[in-house]
From TrEMBL:
Residues 286-308 are annotated as: Disordered. This is TIM-barrel domain-containing protein. Residues 198-352 form the Glycoside hydrolase family 31 N-terminal domain. CDD domains: GH31_N. Residues 508-645 form the Glycoside hydrolase family 31 TIM barrel domain. Keywords: Glycosidase, Hydrolase, Signal. Belongs to the glycosyl hydrolase 31 family.
Amino acid sequence: MRRLRHRVPWPAWIPLALASVLAGTTLAAPAPAHAAAPAAGAALDPAHSSVSWQSPVYAKGTGGGPEKCPDAATDPDGTVCARFDLTVAVPDGYWDDNPEGGVPLSIRWERPSDDFDLYVYDDHGKQVASSAGTADPEATVIPRASGTYHVLVVPYDVHDNSFTGTAYLPATTDAGDLTSFSGGDGSYTIGAGQLTARADFLKGGRLRLQADPSGSLSDPAGTAIVRRQPALQRHTSSFDAGDYYGIRSPQAVLRVYKKPLRFGLYKPDDRTRIWQEDKPLRWSTGGMRQSLARGTDEQFFGGGEQNGSFSHRDRTMYVANSFDWNEGGYNNSQPFYLSSAGYGVFRNTFAPGVYTFGSPVTTGQQERRLDAYYFLGDAKQVIGAYTALVGKPFMPPVYGLEPGDSDCYLHNANRGERHTLDALKIADGYTEHQMPLGWMLVNDGYGCGYENLEQTAKGLQEHHAQLGLWTQDGIDKLADQVKAGQRVAKLDVAWVGNGYRFALDACDAAKKGIEDNSDARGFVWLPVSWAGAQRCGVLWSGDQKLSWDYIRWQIPTYAGATMSGIAYNTGDVGSIYRHDAEMYARDLQWKAFLPAVMTMDGWASDLTTGKPADQQPWRDGEPYTSVNRKYLQLKERLLPYMYTLSAQAARTGVGAVRPLWLEYPDDPKTLGAQAKYEFLSGPDFLVAPVYEDSDTRDGIYLPKGTWTDYWTGRTYQGPTTLNGYHAPLDTLPLFVREGAIVPMWPKGTTSWQTRDRHELDWDLYPAAHGTSRYTLYEDDGVTRDFAKGAAATQRVSVRCDAGGTTVTAGASRGDYAGKADARAYRFTVHGGTAPARVLLDGRPLPAGAWSYDAGARVTTVSTPSLPLDRGFTLRLVDQGKHR
């Protein structure tokens, strides 16, 4: 049986790693090393600020979770699992403005190489905190602690080892009055007693604000996240406004208030607030928070992957790695948020944090320092500035945007002993069923190795797919594996550990390892990460169990991740652990409009029968096979559109999957409950997944403009809400924006390698007024030559007037390996009546070159092969017109 170490769904809580030195009175002095039993318990209250205790020596581990621990009566001395009762008694409101938000709890082993897990339960038996990664110390926070808690430490894999447990009440201190102010040329130093702060104005309209009560400024993150520090914006000046000093840059004024020290950022007029501290900075034993006044209608987004949400006003957002793969989890979170007030902020740290977007807004990390970069502009500008700092989204290979397949074939396979080359039989299935396949993970690091690597890679390439491998415990073999044909690397939690810096370093290293040993682009997947991971990997939301809720909460998750510059965030098609044919088909439909997707095969059981159920998209037979094929082939056809969005993301930081608010920020309904469960794929496709056992979808919100039903051609005028939309199993509610220009590969395409390079289709939705424009991006799809300029663009515009519709296609500018010299075009033009004639560069096309479908109101035009180095004009002349 496959043992999924650390791949379990932990409940949502606050897993805040701590490494700070504990201060205060120790209630129970540590017992001598190798004591026979831990202390039974202790209290934390205003008279007792900290406690520590010592465990017995454990000769070996349990090899499992809490279920492997006997009850306390059977194990009174804690010889199998360690127990400690902690009673917390604090005044009402103690946690309301405390940077750490609860009692920090840490377990440190005498020898840190061993592995163990930590769980905390309240007096009712509910788990309220846990830590089950691979760090030492293992640490967490008991949120808003009050009452008695039962701490359980499970020695998972230990060898004659013991630990020391510690917990403390964090005390708080506020910044006092300003005591010094100096500086110029873009950099200013501020003092308030022992607190030292510095404000650096940076090129690009960015501000870095640092503060530290130790009196000196440190930078623990170094160059790990921000690899290149922006240059100072030296054109600044300061002035004394009485209550505050003002620092003026071309983009903003920073106010430095004197009594007490507070900060505020204003527009250049020094009157219009961007953000304003309502209280001084507050720090505690191991944390610091900033408190801001909240605007009347101010909205908040970001935080990386926040499972189940994309908008955070009146919510508490946790920034850490919780190993909770389900709704409420945040394993790919980032210490960044953006505000509708026109700014965003990134905390340059690997410390976890808690952000509460109430009134006031309080944001804090688990460290006694502030290191924040502020960005100005609208949401897209802020995302662009943030990713320019931590790394723009990477440019994936084109096969990375095709579906992936993952399974364990050698050793410990859930489907019986197999061989790595058996993966080729699965690839045969994709080919036989005419379903696209871009890559395969053919092993699992948890007991599943590999053999015949070169033969497997070659066999997959014959199926137009690339070899991927799972990495559990490092990448020391990556160079040889890449030389043997590996092009995809998946990093599992035992390798990326608790996330944070470890995960980011792993992601960077794996991408580099592929690129150092081939001419390919690095293509890396990882389940836990941190700020900066967008530059190197696809973030994957982990191991989940299938349900209709599973489909529902993922929708805002991946759209919301885009608000932190994460261009590739996804989950398993149909989950990993359970299978149902209808849910699988519904899940696959909408995930066809995510850039990156994969199936996890070999671990699921059928929801009805309980029997093992593989998850390839043809396994359930008809009608499911045909439905799944329909959407996989549609995804393949749309790759020119999605690939262009990837190129845009690499340039702007804005990914393809977007909440409606990002494109329609002036529409408050895009923040409503209905719009939460739909998203935009690029600016043009509105996707409203079916996430219930129903053939009807209610509450589909369409923003302003004209929207066309992709399947029927029916148009709707927004803003409006659709109820009772008929959506049988084969129908994903899908709408296209007026003015959309969508490039597509020819019908029947199943691989980027076998597509007809001499044909390109354009699906057009002309706007009733004005001109629509689109720029197609193309390169060789696999090498890194694009970074040297080996790419091409082609501009297309569509304009309607009183006489008809004009399509103007420019020449393809630029070159790359494999670029065709000429190609034919197939245009589908939606709306309107049958044209009287169709002109190509002013000359009529023969009647057989175009047709009109009155039911769908679509004109289809096929051109002859045309040279790519010259543009052309297509004119659909309305009936009764002579132009």
